[in-house]
Design goal:
Elements lengths: L2 E5 L4 H12 L3 E6 L2 H10 L4 E5 L7 H12 L4 E4 L12 H29 L2 E6 L12 H24 L3 E8 L18 H13 L4 E4 L3 H10 L2 H4 L3
């Protein structure tokens, strides 16, 4: 039986992934900082879920992940689904710093812990829910876009590292566009996917050990266009 941990499983894509993994025979360690939501999710698949209340920004994150891994009896897949981001036209530093704490610092702690675990195990999978927003800067949410760019580039660096070390560690970067969750805060939204649809595409990408996937797949078109827009033009948009 495959074993997985989802960091950030209490809502949105993380919750949908947890249920999908459980329905496909995984033992799943679910984490989140909202104890009540974690308890509600646990009751849906009590024989598949092992829950642990964890604030991704708190101390002892790595120790808690180790505890949960021991409860599962091992680990094959680590999914980082935690994330925050606020619209911040006024550049309020009190909105920027929490985004960095979760999307950069906590992300870093989790993926480094997982990488070392799988390095010692000689194999495993890491999947991260980043964002198409990480492809370019964004005036309305500068810290969010920048934090997702950090994740995208960090994961690419880790994939390069696995090749250099000749390790059987698969690293999947899932880049959603708009998904119908609390994270979808832009004023104009289109091609909105349900969390369930997003989770299914991510699950299939994990099974196929894909490096990068856009959620939903049509967002590849937007990604291509974003990359093609010259900087001088993009900065005036």
């Amino acid at each position: 039986m495959q074993k997985a941990i989802i960091v950030g499983a209490t809502s949105g894509i993380g919750k949908s992934l947890a249920l999908l993994l459980a329905d496909n025979g995984y033992k799943v360690g679910i984490t989140g900082r909202r104890k009540n939501l974690l308890a509600e999710l646990h009751t849906e698949r009590p024989y598949s879920f092992y829950s642990l209340t964890i604030d991704a920004t708190a101390n002892h994150l790595e120790e808690n992940l180790q505890v949960l891994t021991e409860q599962l009896g091992g680990l094959d897949l680590l999914i980082f689904s935690a994330g925050i981001g606020e619209l911040n036209n006024d550049l309020n530093i009190d909105l920027e710093l929490p985004t960095i704490d979760v999307n950069v610092k906590a992300f870093n702690k989790v993926v480094i812990w997982a990488y070392h675990y799988f390095e010692e195990q000689k194999g495993g999978q890491i999947a991260v829910i980043s964002s198409i927003a990480g492809l370019r800067g964004g005036a309305i949410a500068p810290a969010y876009n920048a934090s997702k760019a950090y994740q995208i580039n960090y994961l690419e660096g880790l994939r390069q590292k696995t090749k250099q070390q000749k390790l059987a560690i698969s690293i999947t970067d899932a880049r959603p566009g708009f998904v119908d969750t609390a994270m979808a805060k832009a004023e104009k939204k289109f091609w909105m996917a349900t969390p369930e649809k997003a989770a299914l595409q991510i699950f299939n990408a994990i099974k196929a050990k894909k490096n990068v996937i856009y959620i939903t797949k049509r967002w590849q078109i937007i990604a291509f266009l974003l990359k093609m827009i010259p900087r001088f033009l993009y900065e005036r948009m």
